[in-house]
Amino acid sequence: MAYNPQLVVSRAPHIKIKVETTRQIMGEVMLALLPAALFGVYLFGANSAAVILSAVGGAVVTEAVFQRRLTGLTALVGDGSAALTGLLLALTLPPSISPGYAAAGGVAAILFGKVLQGGLGRNLFNPALVGRALMLVIWPAAMTTWVSPVDGTSAATALGGGEFTVQALFLGTVPGSIGETSALFLLAGALFLWFRSRIEWRIPLMFILGALVTALLFGADPLVHMLGGGLMIGALYMATDWVTSPMTRSGKVIFGIGCGVLTVLIRELGRFPEGITYSILLMNAVVPLLDRYLKRKALGEA
Amino acid sequence: MPLMKSALFGSRRGRTFDRGIDLPHHKHYTDTRAVERLPLPPEVVIPLQQHTGSVTEPLVRVGDRVTAGRKIGDLEDRWCAAVHASVSGTVVAVEPRPFGDGRLVTSVVIERDPDSGTDEPTRRTGENWRDLEPEQILRILKESGIVGMAGAGFPTHINLAVRTRIPLLIVNGAECEPFLTSDHRTMLERTDAVIGGAEIIMHCIGAERCVFGVETNKPDAIELLQERIRDIPHMSVVPVAVKYPQGYKKTLLRAITGKEPPLGGRSADVGCIVRNVSTTAAIHDAVVLGKPLYERVVTVTGPGPLAGAGNYLVPIGTSVRHILEMVGVDARDLDGYKIIRGGPMTGLAIDTLDAPVVKPTTGILVMPPGEIQPEYSRINPCIRCSACVNHCPVGIYPNEISQLVEAGVPEEAHRLHINECCECAICSYVCPAFRPVTDLVMEGKAILCRREEENAPG
Q1: The domain that contains A42 carries what CATH number?
Q2: Residue of A nearest to B6 (CA)
């Protein structure tokens, strides 16, 4: 009798693209943010490190609790998306803020920004920014107190009226949130992600262009708008979040422009010096509409 | 974005379509291996349905003696293609046998006469086929059991039965699936049969022009075809970019002509018929040599690489077991392996080595345990990365469709053009969340198709 081996039977396809699991992608985005984060810690000191760890910890533990993944360290990390949310949130926080607030922000980001919206892939709004928006409302003073990277004394950001050289703004040796000040490191990380096909150029480019043109229309200094606040981290890392941005190319263009224009409108017309958080959250709300009305045509569709 | 990067780092040569994906080729294992005949099997199991359409009736009984090329299954129905004995011998059984996909299909089992060889049939229709009416040629194709040999196995006489003249014939030599090289070898070794078959199809559909679409990773085939058609003004070779699924008829058509058939339409709607090269050669053999489709070239290969990898001419109905044995693979070493009939993107993982080679079997892939991908998971949520949307060659939304099917509302997927899906499986291939996107889309198509049949009047 011929031998009948135990064959593996499964549906096609029988090959799979390499290294593209959710955890690996989240890991790559965190790797891209690492230079900016380390630079922030170097500039602003140990409290920044504590803030980053607290926010990440708060986010990771919250998600693990809700998904009942407390069996071990690997299970705790899960797909890595909560850790990334925590990191992104931390990088947008003032360096002098209490790590306790940061941890609470991490919890809020996952709880209100993700879990209660249906979990991974179902949230309408960027979780990190939901956390940040809540923190802005609850601790308005702590969330808008900035320190000088030189001596640690309180100082105004470029958007708040501080005067800095273009070099300082680009390198990031200015007051601001932990990870938002260095356009150089943020761009380097984004370039890496772009080469790895993790982010897409339309949203960041249109975001920046939209802000630039609007700033010029207001007669404001476009460089301060570009480099003085959270525009770079927002355009490169927040607005490009897959879950909360449009799917189609045309949708991405409109989404990016909308974010850029709204950012400058809020900064110039509103009472806040900064407008990244609310501009992206507002545009997040428009994404389902953009996806619905800017459907890409199928092959052969008239 | 990929577009910009390719502009930076050298773009693909050749015309192409939008989206799709670059896959690792894995063609070098076999693309220089000329077609060889394997020792004939002691027995063949020939399923009476190897095509899309109706099951044929057996025309032989146990004990009948048959010669290779004799018709053993047919039906007076348009939606069917005849089935033929592939070796000379005695019918020992007409019974359900495993097809490889879990089903049992009525098959004719022929025990080969030990002294029978591989004589070609001598009945020649000759070179005078131009005197035949298209209907007569289509009759020959149906009688010869010609079906699409690249995958679906659609009866060719139905494809070529056109109401109006179709100006353009595209002969599909893209062979875009990784590992497979049987079409490539056919173009190299049976160039004149391919060209001759193309002339016959042109005659049938009233075409004025014929284009051979060949991916640029087969430069020798492109060169050879160009050389042989130099004096045929109505034929040309168009090198197309190496991209999956370049060989799907609608994407190949788009690459070569820039035209897109309307939704739900066929290539004929934009004045074109697409035929695979191996099928085209088989059409030549049927009409000119009077040889029915009872054997074909199969690429036997696998990562590793497989020691006996190559291209082999085998009778239809030869078991995968026999082929692997003949190339030096021991069945006892295959526990935990995956054996695929067809290519790695669309092929079938067979459940038994007794599964036969059938007319659309392009290859046999031996995947060792280390190469087998982990199972896809229906539980993982979509993270809206839109990779499937950005790579989908037919431009639909696999992510949204898969979620609708998962949510139990496939009817909603109609407006998302679910039926345009060509089942290329790129969406599952790229999904970082390991969702079985292709399975879900196919499941949705099947549910909708069933409902449509149930609701059909009469």
Answers
A1: 1.10.3430
A2: A195
